[in-house]
Give the backbone structure.
Amino acid sequence: MVITEGLSQARPVALRLVDVEKRFGGVAALKGVTFEARYGEIHALLGENGAGKSTLMAIAAGALRPDAGTIVLPSGVTDAMTPLVGREAGLSIVYQHPALVPDLTVFENFSMALTENFVGLRKRSSAWVQDQLARVGCTASLGATVQSLTVVQRQLLEIAKALAAKPKILILDEPTAALSASDTAVLFAELRNVASDGCAVVYITHRLAEVRELCDRVTVLRDGEVRGTFTVMEITDGEILELIVGRAISVLFPPKGDIAVERTPNMVVEHVSGRGFHDVTFSALAGEIVGLGGIVGSGQSDFVRALAGLEPARGRVTIGGELLHFGSARSARSSGVVYLSSDRLREGLFTGLSVRENATVSSLEQFSRAGVVKSRAEAGATEEQRSALAIRTPSIEAEVSTLSGGNQQKVLLSRALVNRRARLILADEPTQGVDVGARVEIYRVLRKLAASGAAVVVVSSDVRELEGLCDRVVVFSAGTSVAELDGDDVREQLIAHAMMTSTARRHAASRLHVGSHTLATAVGARLRRASSGSYVASGVLAIVIVAIALYTQFYNDRYLSSFNLSTLTVLMASLLFISLGQACVIMTGGIDLSVGPLAGLVAVVGSFFENQGHSSGVLVLGFVVMFGVAIGVGLVNGVMVGVARFTPVAATLITYIALQGISLVLRPFQGGFISTSIINGISFSIVRGIAVALILAVGAAVGLEILLRKSRWGLALRAVGSNSQAAFRLGVQPIRIVIGAYVACSALTFFGGVLLMSEIGVGTPTQGISFTLAAVTAVVLGGTSIMGGRGSFLGVLFGAVLVEQLLNITTFLHINQAWQYWFEGFLVFVAVGIYTRATARNKIFGGFATWLRGRRRPSVEVAE
């Protein structure tokens, strides 16, 4: 089919991509693509999953580097495109999977997306940020972490931060996939406004109705090549579909079967209640597909999660006459429940595993004997589904993260097809982000599963999908099933009417209970924030430190003597400096095992310079050499981890061994006594033996904490540790941040090594080894996540003080020295357990808030 292009040349070009090529392994994603976006136009970019749409726009935004081709921005041709360059040129992008850092707050994520300085944005007031969120209907609290938000709120946040930058070029990749009809309407109004102001908008979607409603022009990609660019008015939907899939599509939905009324119900749900839903009752006959409709967030997704054993619930559900037990995902799986999450990246797929492993992970018992997987059978089943669903992947052994969003969704669906024990399929938004060709296959598969005897429940916010696919539709509103439609009543108009209307009685009841709901929400939010806050660990550790000090002083009044404090506070300062450095690295998701040997090497090097009788020049030179050695070690570690891609453990273990060997070569035996004046100067104390070094170390901790919370460096440090890919898309350069973190770690370790030198008073090659474990212990005790992205330098301060305190009190309490290590191990065990549980979505506090809301639940009816 040949269609004549009719393009308006009146508007100037804002973004031009010329002959862009990109390959992933042996697969050509883009084959010489040329694309233009013009000022004041909304330009749709269409194509199947894997056609190259997202890849092309990621290249335009600088998130991917093309193999060939040219990018032309308003500022001119850009040879070294990065997200930061694009942002400075006025380009904003809304990614299909939001570029948000999960451990950062809403406000922090928002600020990182803007070129304005973070501190300046804070002074501008958070009210402005709140206004930008409200502009698209995002109700998230500015202080909430992104990982605590719903899929919808994350998507709205992603859209809000893109619009707030007042872009000249705005790219949106499947922005409405997770949005309700009302949210979509608000977004469309905003896009029309920005286009009328002269912004060039590129809009990627799989929904042709959106193209008709919103867009001026359309470009179709297929197999990495442009198939044509047209004005929307000059091309029909059928012609667009034929260009997208390469063939005519006559039927979207498979025919529904004839459901006999006398059939025995395949699934019966009786008075099921849980978090977010209440008193749900319906049944499904054999061969039926039951759709759950309603405004997004009305409880339908919570309901299917409860059926999957992911949320607590009460009530009664039978499948084929057998009772389904709530509260355990393992029990649900053993009962034949297969849950396909709408959030495929966070809950559905294991992104680091292959297509094969993701497809068979819930049914490995089918392919194993005596615990050994029969790889040939497993691969054969996966290949069969790859062919049936047309999953575009070079191999079933390819990582699922390398696939397009739609193909990832197909892999998720294949999990249900592979599982021969599947009796209940729970599909939450199964076609979200999927092209029309793939939708046809997914609809066919769901119908096939229903016909085979499995109960199929589909959650969808697409009313047309509910009408075309489902035999029965249960409409949710305010957490309750308010209408049930079947047969000829499953029509778009009736479903929409049930979704959008309710009686005055419901509104009155809602107004009556809005106060308690608001109270519950506020209480729940405060409890969650308090339990996962950055300073919870600091408060707990401070109490423990004071309690131990008081008890030890009561037992032995020499504990708080000036003599003991002068020694103890220098050791605390030494460990604190090293621990602060370790925290810098751990917050990026790494670790530095070499800090102990480095501190020892600094002291050994100092033992050759800082001796009695040396001139002041030699003394100063000694400190310069010591500092230079530390910075050199930091650079080596940073380059190995950030550039050479060594794992942090392997890289710093190599350095650990090398540094310890150098120390032993320089000082095979103890030697090189440190000048008394140097020792006295470094360990100088003030009131009651408190060393000045500790005051300086505390000042360093406070200063680093301020930078961590108030500067772009602090945001970048945490962002890289939380999600380095999202951080890169937000304009951060992860390699630079990682190298900087290791250099900072070594620089701070230098100060710890100098204090160690003054405390020992002589060059000893093995003295610093113990600091590696002690520093990691202090960081973990302080509440810093060993996985990166979250932590507090103030927590590290209290952690270091507690560790040295435990090492010190054994002498005064006359207990075995082994208790030093047992204390440390016990505290780390408790700390990790508490902090992990506190940040794992805070289910206890969330449940308490839900209990408050559910104390008196309003009755709900649907208007006739």
Notes: The radius of gyration is 31 Å. The chain has three domains: 1-90+204-250, 268-507, 533-815. The chain has 33 helices and 24 strands. The longest strand covers residues 13-24.
